[in-house]
């Protein structure tokens, strides 16, 4: 005969409601009661009917990772980080890709939330930066945590989020190149819809300013976070026998930098003797090129795991938190063989 929640309640000497609270891991349950119920669950080998409970509306056992990013390595890292926390919490992970530029995206997003009966969401850029999405989630009373590109001093007006300091990382990489004698440092940007693009550009510009190097718009190529964009950007910047005198290229991410490296090889430019190239994020791309790329290490799996931890804490809170929680991460530079002294 199938064991029921009533059997567990009788053996533990508590109500069925208490058993449900224990199984749902509600924080208000006393440890003694929790232990009694879990002993009964183990003794009877009770298996909760999660699907039935979800349909009944008593609880949800899924969270979603929502993204709009073509970088497979980025998505996998984010997925693994959230998934590791979901496993510890006994939750399932829903992966939902969508296009931030799609006119129907908001309606599609809302339908997904209702259909999946989610306990909460982890939002990645650029979706996490869209106020219409945040407003909708607030109106639905849906717990969420946002991953954002930003600085600690820019915290004002932000809800629960993880801030990644792309400005500081881009500043550090640019200064690394400057210290090696580079002045004509080009930048192949990522997608303009991502705040990380503007933050990385701002960090680059500030490093130039602090080192008395004039900003040159001709050294900026507006692209996308893709290998092809790196190829096209490098070909443009190095055209006409390097008329612009570029000695270093900063890629918006590692894919872009790998594309720039590929283009330089096609043009018989030696790396780093004639041209230094650096990336961003320390993805597998940075270690699969030759030479390996100097980059900024961004632990996306750690960041997303922390976001999921914060989400579960927020979702279980029986009252609105008095203060939004904001955590700051700053990527660190990793120097490899793709950068060196500026050519004389």
TrEMBL record:
<dbReference type="GO" id="GO:0003700">
    <property type="term" value="F:DNA-binding transcription factor activity"/>
</dbReference>
<dbReference type="Pfam" id="PF13377">
    <property type="entry name" value="Peripla_BP_3"/>
</dbReference>
<dbReference type="InterPro" id="IPR010982">
    <property type="entry name" value="Lambda_DNA-bd_dom_sf"/>
</dbReference>
<dbReference type="GO" id="GO:0000976">
    <property type="term" value="F:transcription cis-regulatory region binding"/>
</dbReference>
<dbReference type="InterPro" id="IPR046335">
    <property type="entry name" value="LacI/GalR-like_sensor"/>
</dbReference>
<keyword id="KW-0238">DNA-binding</keyword>
<dbReference type="InterPro" id="IPR000843">
    <property type="entry name" value="HTH_LacI"/>
</dbReference>
<feature type="domain" description="HTH lacI-type">
    <location>
        <begin position="3"/>
        <end position="57"/>
    </location>
</feature>
<protein>
    <submittedName>
        <fullName>LacI family transcriptional regulator</fullName>
    </submittedName>
</protein>
<dbReference type="InterPro" id="IPR028082">
    <property type="entry name" value="Peripla_BP_I"/>
</dbReference>
<keyword id="KW-0805">Transcription regulation</keyword>
<keyword id="KW-0804">Transcription</keyword>
<dbReference type="Pfam" id="PF00356">
    <property type="entry name" value="LacI"/>
</dbReference>
């Amino acid at each position: 005969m199938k064991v029921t929640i009533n059997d567990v309640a009788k053996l533990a000497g508590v109500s069925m409601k208490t058993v449900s609270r224990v199984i749902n891991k509600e924080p208000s349950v006393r440890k003694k009661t929790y232990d009694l119920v879990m002993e009964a669950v183990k003794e009877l080998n009770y298996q909760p009917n999660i699907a039935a409970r979800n349909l009944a509306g008593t609880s949800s056992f899924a969270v979603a990772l929502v993204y709009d990013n073509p970088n497979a390595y980025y998505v996998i890292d984010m997925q693994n980080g959230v998934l590791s926390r979901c496993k510890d919490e006994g939750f399932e992970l829903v992966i939902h890709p969508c296009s931030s530029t799609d006119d129907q995206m908001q309606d599609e997003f809302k339908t997904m939330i209702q259909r999946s009966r989610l306990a909460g969401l982890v939002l990645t850029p650029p979706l996490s930066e869209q106020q219409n999405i945040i407003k909708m989630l607030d109106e639905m009373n849906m717990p969420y945590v946002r991953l954002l590109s930003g600085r600690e001093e820019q915290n004002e007006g932000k809800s629960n989020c993880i801030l990644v300091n792309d400005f500081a990382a881009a500043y550090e990489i640019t200064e690394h190149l400057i210290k090696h004698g580079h002045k004509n440092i080009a930048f192949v940007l990522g997608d303009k819809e991502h705040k990380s693009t503007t933050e990385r550009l701002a960090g680059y510009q500030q490093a130039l300013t602090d080192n008395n190097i004039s900003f040159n718009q001709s050294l900026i190529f507006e692209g996308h976070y893709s290998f092809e964009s790196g190829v096209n950007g490098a070909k443009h910047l190095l055209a006409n026998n390097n008329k612009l005198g570029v000695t270093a290229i900063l890629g918006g991410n590692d894919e872009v930098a790998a594309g720039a490296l590929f283009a330089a090889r096609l043009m018989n430019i030696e790396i780093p003797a004639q041209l230094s190239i650096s990336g961003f994020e320390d993805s597998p791309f940075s270690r699969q090129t030759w030479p390996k790329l100097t980059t900024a290490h961004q632990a996306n799996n750690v960041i997303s795991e922390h976001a999921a931890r914060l989400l579960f804490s927020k979702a279980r809170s029986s009252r609105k938190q008095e203060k939004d929680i904001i955590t700051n991460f700053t990527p660190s530079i990793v120097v490899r063989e793709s950068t060196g002294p500026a050519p004389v």
